[in-house]
Amino acid sequence: MQNSTPILTLTVVATGAIAAQRFVGPTGAVAAAAGNALGVSRYLSAQAGDKIPVDTLGTAYVEAGAAIAAGALVESDSVGRAITRNAGVALGRVAPGDPGASAAGKFTEIILFPN
User: Fold this and answer.
1) Which of 1, 31, 40, 94 keeps 20 to 30 A from 73, CA to CA?
2) Cα–Cα distance, 56 to 62 (Å, whole number)
């Protein structure tokens, strides 16, 4: 069961297609690879013009784009999934007690960093 702890959720108008539980950029589109993110789309997918809830502070479950170790810093890949931070903007860290993600397509709880 996914029990995230959002502290601040904002309504965002999507400027393009956004899958559920992906990083959302400040323009309302999927976050760019290694770029900034406003937060994480909740449990809804969106098309351009749709209003969606985006968790911006607290914790959120994010779909992984690859395996992620417990406690790792994460960034966004090109489709808004969480991957282990390499050289991009640190968008968050795997939450304490969460094992991370064993592979792409799995979900992990991330403590969101404002950026």
Assistant:
1) 1
2) 12
Q: Which fold has domain 1-115?
A: Virus Head Decoration Protein; Chain: A, (2.40.300)
- Could you give the CA distance from residue 64 to residue 104 in angstroms, rounded to a whole number? 5
Closest CA to 63 of 109, 8, 31: 109
Beta bridge partners of 60: 110
Q: Looking up tokens 């993600």, which residue turns up? A: 101
Chain centre distance of CA 46? 15
Which residues have C-beta within 8 Å of that of residue 97, sequence separation ≥ 6?
Answer: none
**C-alpha 99: how far from chain center:** 16
pLDDT in tens, the chain (115 residues): 578 999 999 999 999 999 999 999 999 999 999 999 999 999 889 999 999 999 999 999 999 999 999 999 999 999 999 999 999 999 999 999 999 999 999 999 999 999 8
Contact 79, 47 (CB under 8 A): no
